[in-house]
């Protein structure tokens, strides 16, 4: 599973440690997944106050933002951080959200302190996942969130969104899958088909049913076509109340809001795997060629021979 929180979490732990223990001034910029920027500040004067500014991916025009944030974000922040947080209005220049954490109020118990910092490090999911959480909480209660015109578009990457079609007994989630380069598109397409097939055949009754299609599913027919440009097809999940009951809600919100990153991660891994395999194939081909050479050729010092040999040596040293 993705552990995107780890990097920002590590930074936060170091910062709280150094500032609380040593009263060090800190000013740190951080980028995650190439689309969310963070700015973390602690001043010498008030070492127990941590300012965390967040810049969110630019939403596409279909998404509903309320005063610069996804709907439900303010409530989600208050629910997650309680009285340790103050939301600054307006946020720092160049950011969409600035939170002031009062670290003096952190629980003394190390486990609780740790749990809280993990939550601070998950600010991306708290904010971007807020509308998803609102809709899925309604599903858990078998109702539909009011004032939402389906399909509901939620931002997850710059200028890209995924779509929710909420009903009282299920929520359909559709991801138009876009990738940047032609190799990624090919790998992602086959990965997604494999992913859907594997889940179907494994008979995973507890995980949401999932499908893949080349064309947009019916649920998002009304959406403007530029929001539906996908070069690796469409993935659809159907979420039922049993997937969001009690503690399962958090996991489902996390899985759905990181789905694109999850696929990208696997695409990058298979790219690395293919490069390794290709290199091995070239090496064994060279060995086979060398072995197949008639004896008479051995004495002929051709440049063709030399270049092959050099490639073989260089390659084995990089493995
Ligand atoms: C987020 O902040 C940036 C920089 O200030 C701004 O350009 C952008 O419009 C903001 N996004 C929203 C949705 O308000
Ligand atoms: C997509 O590709 C273009 C050009 O190939 C590059 O400039 C851009 O940064 C890439 N975007 C992402 C998100 O990788
Ligand atoms: C979330 O993802 C994890 C890991 O891929 C999986 O084990 C789990 O079943 C998923 N949960 C839901 C509710 O989809
Ligand atoms: C050409 O290949 C043969 C057989 O592997 C080898 O003995 C010979 O030294 C090579 N010649 C050069 C110039 O590398």
Automatic annotation (TrEMBL):
- List keywords of the entry alphabetically: Actin-binding, Cytoplasm, Cytoskeleton, Signal
- List, in alphabetical order, the Gene Ontology terms for molecular function in this entry: actin filament binding; structural constituent of cytoskeleton
**Gene Ontology cellular-component annotations:** Arp2/3 protein complex
User: Example GO biological process term?
Assistant: actin filament polymerization
Task: Name the SUPFAM superfamilies on file.
Answer: Arp2/3 complex subunits (SSF69645)
* InterPro entries assigned: ARPC2 (IPR007188), ARPC2/4 (IPR034666)
**Subcellular localization:** Cytoplasm, Cytoskeleton
Point out the signal peptide segment. 1-23
Task: Give the chief site where it resides.
Answer: cytoplasm
Q: Pfam families, from UniProt? A: P34-Arc
Q: Which family does it belong to?
A: Belongs to the ARPC2 family.
Q: What is the recorded function of this protein according to its Swiss-Prot or TrEMBL entry?
A: Functions as actin-binding component of the Arp2/3 complex which is involved in regulation of actin polymerization and together with an activating nucleation-promoting factor (NPF) mediates the formation of branched actin networks.
Task: Outline the subunit composition.
Answer: Component of the Arp2/3 complex.
Protein name per UniProt: Arp2/3 complex 34 kDa subunit
Q: Which organism is it from?
A: Vigna unguiculata
Taxonomic classification, please? Eukaryota, Viridiplantae, Streptophyta, Embryophyta, Tracheophyta
